[in-house]
Design a protein that fits this description.
Length: 229
């Protein structure tokens, strides 16, 4: 478990892909091939899957098992360093520890649609509202950029080895918003590092606390911080 992998069962992988309602014309970018459970189910629905796996042993195993499947291409590497194609939908059951980086990657790469299995606690964080305890920079970033829908709760028993937490399948459909840059993401994080201060303390107009601001307002703050730098 070098990268903290937990492998979903075939039955739950089928349930996830059924719920996603994969179409034959889809091109899918999968982050983390893992044991190939989702990969096989996606390909069986007729999708063309470009799956990226970081772990060498899992990459070798998946490549051997799926080498004759013409709808699957396995790549070894860090998926979060790869820019998906414009017509690719993202599907992932990624390690929990890279969840925040995954959201930032989605946003910066202008991904139009994604389906991600996330730790339930993190899934709740990204849909938290202003003023709530769980409202963080990643919440504002995700809510500004995407329409987010909870699709399915997945118990820890669905995985081997069994993780200590449950998961949730989330759907992301991109809103009609301007592109977000890496610098703006950094500006948003900077704003939240002083979340109990008002916006004026950041050298900007306003008197409310940072964690009380709507996502649109926080993105505007991030743009201004970027401009000041």
């Amino acid at each position: 478990m070098k990268w903290g992998q937990h492998f979903i069962s075939n039955d739950w992988a089928k349930r996830v892909v059924d719920l996603i309602d994969v179409q034959e014309s889809w091109k899918v970018f999968e982050i983390g091939t893992g044991g190939g459970q989702l990969t096989r189910q996606l390909a069986e629905r007729g999708a063309f899957v470009r799956s990226v796996e970081l772990d060498e042993s899992l990459f070798t195993l998946a490549s051997d098992e799926l080498m004759y499947n013409k709808r699957v291409k396995i790549i070894r590497g860090n998926a979060l360093l790869i820019k998906p194609e414009i017509d690719e939908r993202v599907v992932t059951d990624l390690p929990f520890y890279i969840s925040r980086k995954f959201i930032e990657w989605l946003v910066i790469n202008n991904v139009e649609m994604a389906f991600a299995i996330l730790q339930k606690e993190f899934a709740e964080k990204i849909v938290a509202n202003p003023g709530e305890r769980e409202y963080k920079a990643v919440s504002a970033l995700a809510k500004y950029t995407y329409e987010i829908k909870s699709m399915l709760d997945i118990p820890s028993e669905a995985y081997r080895p069994m993780p200590p937490v449950s998961s949730r399948l989330m759907r992301f459909i991109r809103n009609q918003v301007p592109p977000i840059t890496k610098e703006m993401v950094l500006g948003l994080k900077k704003a939240f590092s002083s979340k109990n201060k008002n916006v004026t303390s950041l050298g900007l107009l306003g008197y409310r606390k940072v964690f009380e601001l709507e996502p649109e307002e926080l993105i505007d703050v991030a743009r201004r911080i970027q401009a000041i730098r």
